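U., I forgot to send this yesterday:
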Amino acid sequence: MKICIVSKFPPIEGGIASRTYWQVRRLLQEGHEVTVVTNSGATEREYCIQGCQKHLRGLTERYQLDLHDVCGEAPWHIPSGPDHLERLLSVLLSVLSRKSFAFIESGYLVPYGIAAGLASKLTGIPHVVRHGGSDLAKFLPHPQYGELLTRILRQAEKVITDEQSEPLLRSAGAITELASVYEPDSKVFAPRHTPRSAPVPVYAYIGKINYYWQRRGLDQLVGWYRANSTKVTLRIIGQGVGQAGFEHWMAAQGLSNLISVEPFVSPWRVPDLLAAVDGVFCLSAGDPITSDSMLQREARAMKRIVLESLPSL
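Result:
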């Protein structure tokens, strides 16, 4: 079967790109011919994972993966912008004109779901929608996005969702199909032990470091670690536009020598990373997204502790 997926994809950082990667890999291994249209080459430098290209080239050479990356800067104009939607849609229409696809699938509503919905309307190819947590929480109820996204959802062949989000999507008029938002591959994310020399438990924060890093509890986490650094090892693995501010805050607190931020890792390196720690922190302070992250699901699959509050040691 020929399938076209429009979504975030490595080297873009984050859960949606990771979910799309594992889905594409599974489809390829099942013998499907997969085309991916993404815009990783136009992503902000702070959210671009380094060292992905060799692995991705290996996928395209070994399997029938056709990868199209909307990259570089858009032509300058007033008011200026990256034009993600317009460029994704144009590349997607070009791709669709060259092959006969069973359906177009989008992995996140903005801009990928919009691009896929418009392409579906223009070509007649069915559109299957997948969503995240932040797109439903931030974009769907927004007065400047809601009308368009509601129409995209209504015209879709189906929206794949879970029990938590289905009532919202049904109320928008979407045809829904219940499924887990993400099930980690049990062969890849299998429980295993990696011998290490650390005499104390190793916990990690793994994820984006945005401007609102306090919302992820990073200030509380580092303060907790300062009080417990002899009892536990803490690793912070992430990057983003808030990283400089977070590191400046740590320096002002006199914590720069206590811990350093490690660069984010690609999805295929996450299993080894999880095997090397005892648990992961998934703290939230006023975050509007209530669903479990992809990382939480992967950590639980590998029998790692998911810490949603600061433990007493």
